[in-house]
Amino acid sequence: MKPWAGRFEKEPEKKVEEFVASISFDERLYKEDIKGSIAWAQALARAKVISEEEARKITQGLEEIKKEIDKGKFPFDIADEDIHMAIERALIEKIGAVGGKLHTGRSRNDQVATDLRMYLKKEIKAVNGLLNNLCQTIIEVAEKNVDIIMPGYTHLQVAQPVLFSHYIMAYFWMFKRDFDRMVSCFKKMDFMPLGSAAFAGTTCPINREFLAKELGFNYISDNSVDAVSDRDFILHFLSQSSILMVHLSRLAEELIIWSTQEFSFVELDDAYTTGSSIMPQKKNPDVAELIRGKAGRIFGNLMAMLSTMKGLPLSYHRDMQEDKGGLFDTIDTLKACLDLMSGILSTMKINVEAMKRALEKSFVNATDAADYLVRKGVPFREAHKIVGEMVKHCSKFNLPLEKLDLEVWKRFSFHFEEDVLEYIKIKNCLNRRDSYGSTAPKRVEEQLKRAKAILKRQKEWLS
What we know:
Layout: H1 14-20, H2 23-26, H3 30-46, H4 52-70, H5 83-95, H6 108-144, E1 149-154, E2 157-163, H7 164-188, E3 191-192, H8 208-215, E4 219-220, H9 224-229, H10 232-258, E5 266-267, H11 286-309, H12 323-347, E6 349-350, H13 352-360, H14 366-375, H15 380-397, H16 406-412, H17 420-423, H18 426-432, H19 441-462
Helix pairs in contact: 3-4, 3-6, 3-8, 4-5, 6-7, 6-12, 6-19, 7-10, 7-19, 10-11, 10-12, 11-12, 14-15
């Protein structure tokens, strides 16, 4: 018989029981549920609602149940509906009627809200740990290839020369922002709902400050109605996860393009690629492609949760049970993608010669040629037009700008002098981009130093 069956005359249909049950996926909350229940038993004893001996028995029984679940020996039953009822049923079977006192003054509404916050705080630490590893991997890849020059792109068209280390470090700053957003998310869910009961608050004289301390919360919720019906913290996490997946997907796309034969800028390690069932020559970037693809999956989880919550009046509704499937899927997917991306980056090979060839057949120094004219007093728009005509000329003869004789330069503008040939050399183009945060070698060295300091602070947060 169900614990709530007192006012019912018959048991629910089997298919209804299966439909409403969440035990198949919320069983992963068992550690948080047991920890919360032990703290609740202690709070009840402190409030003289149950005796110290009863609290001791309850605590001992819950600890035994945890060990059974840890070892995979706990008999989960769909008839229990959810993890809360499964543990309560097992507790009563183990220690008798005193186990039924545990739920005094408490509701599954504030239980699950507390469990989810505790669980998600733990998982955010895990996600940020993986993010920190990815940030460290990016720094290591940048340092290992600090002097390599590559063509940079806008609109997927060759734009200007850039250090590979500077280019790849752009992703460090994306993931650094993701780390910060997860920290913000962690802080926003650091409010304990336990003690809100069904929605109007508990009748027991519970010390909620004691509970918060026991369960690792820095704050307690201010409104019991809001506490049990709030899922903003899940929406926040799903939103931040979606932004993070955008960044992972962009990096994955970059690697997919770079590993094509047409680019050949990088070669992905065999351990992170797969072959074709029909074409023997193929080496497919399937892991990167799946990271890119799984971004849509996480976006979908966010949209599903927004859709679930948008029309719910206060306070708790069973619709909110749908919060867990998408949340757990997002956590699992996110952690796998972060871990795999670190592996891809740490094992890939950089093809310096391919990047060099791409530079030689491009016009990455065209802007610098226009800048040269500007330094000679030519208005930029006129300089832009002159160099554009030069590029058109070079394209006809398949020549880079640096292969033109000085007399050809002068044919386009008398302002060009012999020093222009030195001015447009790729290394000189890089060195002149010397503003803070730019691609000049010394600026990249400064950037790496700042990034390492950030990495250290991130590690401190994780500890």
